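Page 47, continued from p. 46.
Same chain as before, 297 aa.
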Amino acid sequence: MVERSTVRIRRLSNDRIEEARFGRWLNNAKVRLVEMECTIGEQMRARVVGLHVLAIQDTSELNYQAHAGRTRGLGTVGNGRDAGLFVHPVLAVEAESGACLGLVGAQVYARHETAAKHRRALPIESKESMRWLEGAQTAKHYLDTARHVTVVADRESDIYEEWERLPEAGFDLLTRACRDRALAGGGYLYAWSDALAVAERFTLDLPERPGKRSARTATLELRYGAVAVKRPRNGTHPGAAPALALRMVDVREVDAPAGEDPVHWRLLTTHQVEDTAKALEIVLWYRRRWTIEIDQT
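Result:
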């Protein structure tokens, strides 16, 4: 797969005989995802010794509607109609250089039920979003030889239980804020971040995102500060901490081109952010998240 930059069996195979062998291997009941995960995890342990590793996680859907009639075990994908699966990988990236170290683990699952009517009131263990906590726990288990691990994710991973349960010495979280959380001292997160003083102005080359953003050199303002977020009223275990101390790094574009949505990242983290240099480092680590978005096939 590495040599040929593909995961398609036909392209991996030298001939039809080898293609058939790959197919028989994958169809063998003794070939199990959990054993593959254990093997790659153990290999990763030796690779990350002494490094600061970014454990980047994300979710993608695999749409198999065109093959639904001859494929077993499928559920529905995001549109609620087409057949397919979801895959939730955790990718290890070296924090300083951005070098991709490899896969730490992956959850593959099918969605067979629609969202519960009172989903927000359910405990996290009963929600599909539990995958974010499980992915981070996988990283904690297999990256235990690293000097430091920072779990990096986008907005879906802004989950109170993650912030409370997972951080420990040498293991931090960095996630883009998803919701305007109530604060322990009163008020709400977004208004609080808007009022922060600008600590730095800097420029950043933004790549094109077809249909979403043109390539440009953006001028950005940096703000940061310490904040205490309150426990949500719905779904969170009543024994959970009533408030959690986090740091926010706020990055927003000024003078965006006409017709373009300005970049605005509200980044929550358990890292200590005491000065501008550290805040800029948090921005760099979050930018590494795009490594998991790159199509490697």
